[in-house]
């Protein structure tokens, strides 16, 4: 597979708003959808108080049903930006189409391309011209190779791409999607790009987030994304997978010792590492 980024051999530090995505372990957290000033302020204040630097929230929502809440659009982006600013955070939010790139880019630090748009090539080509980082989510039926090649579209002109594994469709009804941790390991071998793991959309539930987050730290992922809502029972989107503020605190406290251990291991003198082995056939 011909990777432009690999050919160029660049390994840039991806820094946005003072947050270096290539160093440490980053948590992107916040509601699925931006709903109200109170909701955003409560989530942002709580998460910032626990050390989270990257606030998420959807304003343009790719809903399966046209009758479901579609998001607050620009009003929502305004609330996201205000809540982040008040709490010293940076933001990530989805851009769904080429027409809304300017408005999303006006308010948001990291533009997310959702799973349903991973191969929307006209969108990716436009984002290659943008001077902002792009968080590209893996399509729900995309192979690792297709994912990396989609990233290449953005990399043609914009080297600030973050890969986001969010699970793929499977036969398992107990999880919303199937989290592909082998894919995460492959992405980290095959690409220099930071890899974030969306544990909310991959699992669709809240009770197995912590062990998976620990696994992400252990395997060297650059971070996780989780949905957090001050009152999950009334969330207008993805209520079942939203962590409450207390649950988010428990998760963050729970992974802290793992993150510390990871930092210590990373700081230890590097041992000579063999390059990735070529996969055997069969
Ligand atoms: C989201 O992050 O809100 C979202 C819709 O995710 P995905 O594109 O992974 O389904
Ligand atoms: Mn969601």
Question: Nutshell version of this structure?
Answer:
This protein has helices at 4-8, 37-49, 73-86, 101-107, 121-127, 144-155, 181-190, 199-203, 209-218, 245-267, and strands at residues 15-16, 19-20, 26-30, 54-56, 90-94, 110-113, 134-137, 161-165, 195-198, 223-227. It is an alpha/beta fold.
Describe this structure in words.
The protein has 282 residues and is of the alpha/beta class. The chain has helices spanning 4-8, 37-49, 73-86, 101-107, 121-127, 144-155, 181-190, 199-203, 209-218, 245-267, and strands spanning 15-16, 19-20, 26-30, 54-56, 90-94, 110-113, 134-137, 161-165, 195-198, 223-227. The strands form 2 sheets. An 8-stranded parallel beta barrel has the order 3-4-5-6-7-8-9-10, surrounded by 6 helices. Helix 2 runs parallel beside helix 3 (73-86) and helix 9 packs parallel to helix 10 (245-267). The chain is globular and about 50 Å long. The two termini are 19 Å apart. Bound molecules: phosphoenolpyruvate and manganese (II) ion. Residues 32, 201, 227, 237-238 line the site of manganese (II) ion.
